Give the backbone structure.
Amino acid sequence: MNIPRKILFLCVANSARSQMAEGLARAMLPEQVTIMSAGSHPSQLNPYAVKVMAELGIDISYHTSKSVNSVDVTDLGLVITLCAEEACPILPGNVQRLHWPINDPASQDPATDEKTMLNRFRCARDEIRPRLEQLFGVILPN
């Protein structure tokens, strides 16, 4: 696959999966393409996503959750949706699409401890990473 010049990662809240995918893709393709993420119902960047990405030396702490309606989709070459059981946002237009159903690592259960949350976020990150490595033909160092 030729790597498109503009890539958008989509999920619902743009708080975890799409943010981690954006961070991983930027680390794999620095300055080669425009990489963005957004959500249909944006909330806020999840601190667990920031922590598990920092474990790989990737800083996403400056990312913010964005609405898909606020993203410039001009010349968009690829949209990757990361929703599993939720309804993924649909972006109209003629663009290449991939769907990677990754379970949402966030939990609304206040009894979920930090260790469990970190493991859930690591699992999501570690599902996204090899897909991007295969797609782009780039292996991130550990």
Summary: Helices lie at 17-28, 47-54, 114-136.
